[in-house]
Amino acid sequence: MSTATDTTGTAADQTTPSRLSRRSPARWVLLAVGLVLALSLPWFVYPPVAMDIAAWALFAVALDLLLGYAGLLSFGHAAFWGGSAYVAGLVALHTGVPFPIAVLAGAIFAMLLALPIGLLSVKRSGIYFAMVTLAFAQMLFFVVNQWRDLTGGENGVQGVPRNFFGIELVETEPFYFYYAALPLILAGMWFAWRVVHSPFGRVLVATRDNPARARALGYDVERYRVMVFVISAGLAGLAGGLFAISHGFVSLQEVSWQTSGKVVLITVLGGIGTLWGAIIGAGVIVTLEDQLASSGFEGIGIITGAVFIIVVMLFRSGIWGTVTNLIARRRGLKPESDDIGAADSEQGL
């Protein structure tokens, strides 16, 4: 079996998108810059908006783990973001536990919800997988809307507390809440990074690029896909729970198909299969929406849609993907877009 492992590992090394971060000092420079930006964000951006950027960034990273590295496009990830938001909000509201515990409860719920959905969905690929996940998400939307005694229906769950071991500054000030929640965001992103750069991640990329060959080498493709689906759901749930606690309420918007579409837009805008691109895309979209809403502009979707179209037409690999491709060409490496494009064609995306 060592031959199979070597063969799969070689293929994965040739197609893993994060070339810039492998065996290079640039990795540590990027990590340091990213950490500094995360720590300084609420000093330059309104703290609640900074928290939104961080939550959506983790949500997009979770989707990119599934889309960029497993080749599976989910249109139903709002089920895990929103499902976790409701669970975290209800746990915090009715038990009074510190918000990290409520958020972790929501993330666990998202993973448990993802297991049966993943088992039924990964048997399909391409647009069929996307439609199956969307159908499950709409089922959850219907349940949440009808179960008014628990979820509040159209009124949502209101008055969600930000309990944090009795520390009043964290519980009342968004600025300090951001720093209390940031370790959970960073832990989620670190975990996604470890998954991508582990043997599991290399096999995952191999199953994305050539499922038939991966099966021939002895790998259970469906099992790997279910595992990454559950991991992705857990990270999305972690982000959704923090988003709910930050805002102090949970609404039907969190489980709507528009939320699934927004995170796909963010991921594609930043660059599929890069992780960094998801973070950049979240920063661009959330900041743009906040600026437009503050100015009183009502057609926010028109502007964000136009930005998305322009980026996709001019920068097919997304913002971060385009940057890394230019660096790769300068260093004489194969551009990432070739690998991702080949994988997408094979998956029917």
TrEMBL record:
Coiled-coil regions, chain positions: none
Keyword annotations: Cell membrane, Membrane, Transmembrane, Transmembrane helix
InterPro entries: ABC_transp_permease, LivM-like
Chief subcellular location: membrane
Disulfide bond is among the record's keywords: no
TM ranges: 28-47, 53-71, 101-120, 127-147, 175-193, 224-245, 265-288, 300-319
Entry keyword Transmembrane: yes
Domain of life: Bacteria
Membrane-related topology note: Multi-pass membrane protein
Protein name in the entry: Branched-chain amino acid ABC transporter permease
Taxonomic source organism: Ornithinimicrobium faecis
